[in-house]
Design a protein that fits this description.
- The protein is an alpha+beta fold.
- The chain has two domains: 38 residues, no CATH class; 127 residues, Fumarylacetoacetate hydrolase, domain 2.
- 23% of the residues lie in helices and 19% in strands.
- The strands form three sheets. Strands 4-5-7 form a three-stranded antiparallel beta sheet. Strands 1-2 form a two-stranded antiparallel ribbon. Strands 3-6 form a two-stranded parallel ribbon.
- 16% of the residues are buried.
- The mean pLDDT is 88.
């Protein structure tokens, strides 16, 4: 029974991160399941949309790294030139929020702000990857609302204090496979 559970967990992971870490094996299993649906050998399970709660498509990423002021228009709207090296800051997993759920304003925050961002979901471990190979590591793309507690963000030159708060990163509702966006926008 223990071995069967381990095999089931490997082939049918309980999280998006587990699916991505499963690599080719989990992706092939998903392809087989989709073939079964198309062929009519699997019966889909459905429910009325009003009875379904949609969760963030990935709630436990290994890392959640954000880049600030990474395009000219945004830098200009803040009254700053585009920096030679844009700020890098984290979001914690507790910042991830399901679609349509309310953002919780941090206590004392008077300038809560948000920006819609393109989230890049990295599908496999990447270290020392060349610019030319970078897209080979992308699994897909999602929508992220980068909420910011501006009162906390600009206390120092480190933005993290205004970015890591619980619920400050609504994600999803879907991850688009990279084949659906063959030429993603570049800053």
């Amino acid at each position: 029974m223990v071995r069967a559970t381990a095999i089931a967990d490997a082939l049918f992971p309980q999280s998006t991160r587990g699916f991505l870490e499963g690599g080719v094996a989990t992706q092939e299993m998903l392809a087989k399941m989709l073939e079964g649906l198309t062929a009519g050998t699997f019966e889909p399970v459905t429910a009325p949309a009003a009875e379904v709660r949609v969760h963030a498509p990935i709630h436990d990423p290994g890392k959640f790294i954000c880049i600030g002021l990474n395009y000219t228009d945004h830098a200009a709207e803040t009254g700053n030139p585009r920096p030679a090296e844009p700020p890098v800051f984290p979001k914690w997993n507790t910042a991830i929020l399901d679609p349509d759920e309310p953002i919780l304003r941090p206590r004392g925050e008077t300038r809560l702000d948000w920006e819609v961002e393109l989230g890049v979901v990295i599908g496999k471990t990447a270290r020392y990857v060349s610019k030319e190979q970078a897209l080979d590591y992308v699994y897909g793309y999602t929508i992220i609302n980068d909420a910011s507690a501006r009162d906390f963000q600009f206390v120092t030159n480190q933005w993290a204090a205004g970015k890591i708060g619980d619920t400050l990163a609504p994600v999803g509702p879907y991850i688009a496979d990279k084949t659906e966006i063959p030429d993603p926008p570049r800053a």
